[in-house]
Specification:
single chain, 5-stranded antiparallel beta sheet, 0% helix
Length: 261
């Protein structure tokens, strides 16, 4: 996976020296860091880069040197300058949260194996020659990881159903107990096996008179339920096959109390 980094440069004519040469300051701004380059131009031919001035406004000082010389016209327009082309290893996987939307999303985790940081900004994402969309990069140092969205996949289909069953128990003080059975079906209609992470959640109570009890989990999640009730399953589904997740939980509260989830 490759990403072309570029910086927008604002050029402003500074002054004319006694020798007749012109000087300009090029300003790079990325991730809160501003870098200035001092340029000398004789009025004809390519300009000469004299030096680099850095303004550390974000706490970190990133300086990129352009690999080639460029002629900057005095048009007042912003100019994009390619700085480097790098290739990084990527891990591609699927994620879905069917309680919110029954859609599987393809994502990529990219590790910055280079020596320079990747600065925050908008990124254009391609899968082969096809444009997959835009994402937003966070500033990531060497060894750090980035997560990139690659869009939805209609060949992975999800169906989430929830079936409640309520009973009333107690003699003098009656309580309503509702058992919820949640079923998630994941069908792989692709011609290859896929790995997909499924997220779901058990509700949390903010009322001491409402008790929530976790029931059967099949299969058991690889993570959770955590403090917020979030669970994560990791499924490996062969081509043309379906996997199923089922879990139950109970909510107990005083009789005739209405639940809002």
């Amino acid at each position: 996976m490759s990403k072309r980094r570029s910086a927008a440069i604002d050029w402003a004519l500074a002054a004319e020296s006694v020798t007749g040469n012109y000087y300009a300051v090029g300003q790079f701004t990325a991730a809160g860091v501003t870098t200035h380059e001092l340029i000398e131009w004789t009025g004809a031919g390519p300009s000469t880069r004299i030096g680099v001035l850095t303004d550390i406004s974000g706490g970190l000082d990133y300086v990129y040197t352009c690999p080639t010389r460029m002629s900057i016209p005095s048009s007042g327009e912003r100019i994009a300058v390619p700085l480097s082309v790098d290739s990084f290893p990527a891990t591609v996987f699927y994620e879905a949260t069917p309680a919110l939307k029954e859609v599987a999303y393809l994502k990529a985790e990219v590790q910055n194996s280079g020596k320079n940081p990747i600065l925050a900004g908008t990124v254009n994402i391609f899968m082969g020659p096809d444009f997959a969309g835009q994402g937003r990069l966070a500033t990531t140092g060497p060894g750090g990881k980035l997560s990139l969205p690659l869009g939805a996949d209609e060949n992975i289909r999800l169906k989430r159903t929830i079936v409640p069953k309520t009973e009333t128990e107690g003699v003098f003080s009656k309580d309503d107990i509702t058992t919820y059975t949640v079923t998630i079906e994941v069908g792989n209609y692709k011609k290859r096996r896929v790995e997909i992470a499924i997220f779901d959640q058990v509700p949390k109570s903010g009322n001491e008179e409402i008790e929530i009890e976790m029931g059967k989990l099949s299969p058991k999640p690889v993570k959770g339920p955590d403090h917020d009730g979030i669970m994560r399953w990791e499924l490996d589904i062969p081509a043309g096959k379906m996997s199923k997740i089922e879990f139950k939980y109970k909510i107990e509260r005083p009789e005739n109390w209405q639940l809002h989830q």
